[in-house]
Structures are given as C-alpha cells and as structure tokens.
C-alpha cells in the first residue's frame, strides 16, 4: 500500500533490474517509496537517488534530494558529471560484490595460468595437445589496486596458492600478499607480474597509468586481466602488444569505450576474452541493507557510510 507522505527514492539504471531492487528495498527500507523517474508526479518528495549512469540533468528535477547512492562500486562516471547536486554521494561497499569480483578474477587468472587459450586453439583444430599443468605457486600474479575489491581478490588468489603480489598508490597490507606501494615501485611490480590484474579505481591519478612504457615493463608473454576501467590502460598500446605477443593473452571486462565498438581489433583476437562489463554487479539482496542504513542515517541527521570524496575520486 502506498503511503502518500513517504519520501521517494528515485531509481535509474539501464542494466539493473528495477523490480528486484524495488522488492529488496521494500523489505530493507519500507519507509521509502522506490520509483522510476517516470512514475513520479511530485518530484519534491524525492529525497534519495539510487543511480547507475543516469542521463544528463537527471538530478535537477529533484529539489529536495538529500543523498545520491551510486549503484555500483566505481564512482568515476558520477564524479565526471557537471550536474551533480551538492549532497553526499555514497557508493556500494558490499562483501557479496567483492566475492563476485574475486570469483571472476580467479576464473580469469586460471584461464591464463591453466593454458585454457592454448587448449581452445587445440580444440578448434581437433588436436589432442597435452601441456603439463603448472602448480599455482609457479604463477606470479600482480594485483594492481588493493582497495575493497582488489584485496579480496588478492586473498582469494593467495588462498588458491598463487604467488600473489599487490600494488597500491598508498601503503597497505593484505595477509599472504607481498604489498608494494607508490610509483617508485610500480616498474619492479610490473616486471614480476606474469598475470597482471587491474583493479584500480579510475581517478585523475590512474587514468592512463598503464601507458605504453609501463605495459612494456611487463615480462615477455605476460597476461593481462582488466576488471577495473578501460581508461586505466592505453588501449591502442595494449592492442599493439597483443599483436606483437609481448602481452600473450588478455581477459577484458572493461574498455575505454563501452559498448566496445564492432570494429575494435580486440574482438578478432582469439587470445582475448571479452565480457561486457559484468565482472561484478550490485546485488539487491545484500546491498539494500547498507542503503537502508544510510537512509536511516540521513533521516536521523547522522553522517552516512561509504561516502565518496570527490577530491580523491573514490
Ligand atoms: C562498478 C562496476 O563500479 O560495475 O560497480 O563497474
């Protein structure tokens, strides 16, 4: 039953299931009325926005907005806008999302470490080609970015026995993982990464971080996994290095331009696996609890959790 005076949470995402979010939030935050923009006839009742890449000028319709909740972990597209309202912005920080991401990263690392590309080629040629498997500790994996998602993926890979190193801009520790920090150590870190997994947020500091010269620091025949943002990597340089074989294989979930244009050479490379930006997604059942908690905090005049610092970029 709709109570006329409940505050409204407006939802926007072209990729997420509104019905699933509406149901999860009805259970976790019954004090708000969750609606799509087109179902709202009194925009002044909108106090919350739960959004993934809403269209330009989306927010200007809602004069009473108190909180913008990014429907995902990475806030780069939201912070890149010029029409953001002056209210707190939060991102999702959900252990279930981190676990889903760690699952994808584990799959991608195994794809490279267990020679799956080699076996797929052999299968296409109907060739029984035996290649003796290496044990996990014989593959050095570098996790570039040790935030909430990167550190969980690093732990999972370490648990599987891989030789895992991690790099972050600032000092940090992850159990069982040799951690490097700062640009001074990046070259050494890259040179040791047989499989490099990119898990950095996109900020002014990380845009183009993996330029041609840094990609060249990877060992000959390295494999690259990108589950972060396409623009962290110089994509043209990556394509050249995949052609030359310096980078032997890649698993890419994110691209400089999405959807990846049909004429992008990456599509035709059989050593490259392309997935359409879904390594991890926001999960209504678990994330709605933290959204409900932040709504409660706003209503109580308290500070919110997982607030984004626009100056820092995440
Ligand atoms: C995210 C993403 O940032 O899906 O959550 O890329």
Secondary-structure content class? alpha/beta
Instruction: Give the class-level CATH name of the largest domain.
Output: Alpha Beta
Whole-number count of domains: 2
Beta-strand content bin: 15-25%
SS elements, strand count: 12
N- to C-terminal separation?
38 Å
Report on this structure.
This protein is of the alpha/beta class and 314 residues long. The protein has 2 domains: 8-94 and 282-300, Rossmann fold, CATH 3.40.50.720; 96-274, NAD(P)-binding Rossmann-like Domain (Rossmann fold, 3-Layer(aba) Sandwich), CATH 3.40.50. It is 29% helix and 18% strand. It contains 9 helices and 12 strands. Helix 7 links the parallel strand 9 and strand 10 (222-226). Helix 1 (18-28) crosses helix 9 (284-299) and helix 3 (95-113) crosses helix 5. Bound molecules: oxalic acid. The site of oxalic acid (OXD) has 5 residues, from loops.
Question: Short description, anyone?
Answer:
It contains 9 helices and 12 strands. It is α/β, with parallel strands linked by helices.
Search tags:
single chain, 5-stranded parallel sheet, elongated, alpha/beta, binds oxalic acid, Rossmann fold, 2 domains, 7-stranded parallel sheet, 314 residues, 29% helix
Give the SSE map:
Elements: E1 8-13, H1 18-28, E2 33-36, E3 46-52, E4 67-70, H2 76-79, E5 89-90, H3 95-113, H4 116-124, E6 140-144, H5 148-159, E7 163-168, E8 178-181, H6 186-191, E9 195-198, H7 212-215, E10 222-226, H8 235-244, E11 247-252, E12 272-274, H9 284-299
Parallel strand pairs: 1-2, 1-3, 3-4, 4-5, 6-7, 6-9, 7-8, 9-10, 10-11, 11-12
Helix pairs in contact: 1-9, 3-5
The structure holds oxalic acid.
């Amino acid at each position: 039953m709709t109570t006329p005076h409940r505050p409204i949470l407006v939802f926007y995402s072209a990729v997420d299931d509104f019905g699933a979010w509406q149901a999860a939030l009805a259970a976790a935050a019954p004090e708000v009325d969750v609606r799509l923009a087109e179902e709202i006839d009194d925009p002044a009742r909108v106090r919350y926005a739960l959004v993934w890449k809403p269209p330009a000028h989306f927010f200007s319709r809602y004069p009473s907005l108190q909180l913008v909740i990014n429907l995902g972990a990475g806030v780069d597209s939201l912070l890149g806008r010029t029409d953001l309202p002056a209210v707190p912005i939060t991102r999702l920080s959900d252990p279930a999302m981190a676990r889903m991401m760690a699952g994808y990263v584990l799959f991608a690392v195994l794809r490279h470490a267990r020679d799956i590309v080699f076996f797929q080629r052999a299968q296409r040629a109907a060739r029984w080609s035996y290649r003796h498997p290496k044990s996990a500790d014989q593959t050095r994996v570098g996790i570039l970015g040790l935030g909430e998602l990167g550190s969980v993926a690093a732990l999972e890979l370490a648990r599987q026995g891989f030789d895992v190193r991690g790099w972050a801009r600032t000092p940090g520790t992850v159990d069982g993982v040799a951690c490097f920090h700062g640009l001074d150590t990046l070259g050494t870190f890259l040179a040791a990464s047989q499989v490099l997994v990119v898990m950095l947020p996109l900020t002014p500091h990380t845009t183009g971080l993996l330029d041609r010269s840094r990609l060249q620091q990877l060992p000959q025949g390295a494999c690259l996994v990108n589950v972060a943002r396409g623009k962290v990597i110089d994509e043209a340089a990556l394509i050249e290095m995949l052609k030359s074989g310096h980078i032997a294989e890649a698993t890419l979930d994110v691209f400089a331009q999405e959807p990846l244009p049909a004429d992008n050479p990456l599509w035709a490379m059989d050593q490259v696996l392309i997935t359409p930006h879904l390594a991890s997604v926001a999960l209504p059942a678990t994330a709605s609890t933290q959204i409900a908690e932040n709504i409660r905090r706003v209503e109580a005049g308290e500070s919110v959790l997982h607030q984004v610092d626009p100056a820092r970029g995440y």
